C-alpha cells in the first residue's frame, strides 16, 4: 500500500478499525492508566513539560481535528500558563466551511496561511 501510488484515503480504507489495531492486552493496559507501563512511557516522552518558552508562541489548532485532539493544545497551553509562560497564545480554529470528513487535512492550509500572515510583519 505504501508504494507512492495509493492515496492516504485508500490506505485508511484498507486498515482495520482502530480497536482492531491493538491487542486486548494493550487496550487493557491503556485503560488501567494508574499502573500502565505504556502510560508511563508516554509521560516520559512528554514533549513540552520540561521547558518554558522564552519567546512568543502560538498554538494554532483546529478544534474538530479528527487525528490530533484539540485537547493536546489545551493541555499544553494550560501547562505553559501554569509555569508563567504568558507569551503563549492558544488560537483555536473553528471553521464550519471546512470539509468535516477530514478536518486534519482540510485545516492544514488555512492554518499554514494564518501562520504565514502572523509572521509576515516581521519580514518588513
Outline the structure in words:
- The chain folds into two domains: 1-45, no CATH class; 53-124.
- The chain has 124 residues and is mostly helical.
- A two-stranded parallel sheet has the order 1-2.
- Helices cover 45% and strands 10% of the residues.
- The protein is built from seven helices and two strands.
Key phrases:
single chain, 124 residues, mainly alpha, two-stranded parallel ribbon, 10% strand, flat
What is the topology?
Elements: H1 8-14, H2 18-21, H3 24-31, H4 37-44, E1 57-62, H5 70-82, E2 88-93, H6 103-106, H7 108-119
In short:
The protein has 124 residues and is mainly alpha-helical. It has 7 helices and 2 strands, in the order H-H-H-H-E-H-E-H-H.
In spatial order, strands of the major sheet run 1-2
Poorly predicted segments: none
Distance between the termini: 46 Å
Task: Let me know the number of strands.
Answer: 2
Given the helix and strand composition, which structural class is it?
mainly alpha
Strand content: 5-15%
Mean pLDDT: 85
Can you give the helix content as a percent range?
40-55%
Major sheet details:
2 strands, parallel
Approximate shape = flat
Radius of gyration: 18 Å
- SSE series: HHHHEHEHH
The count of helical stretches stands at 7
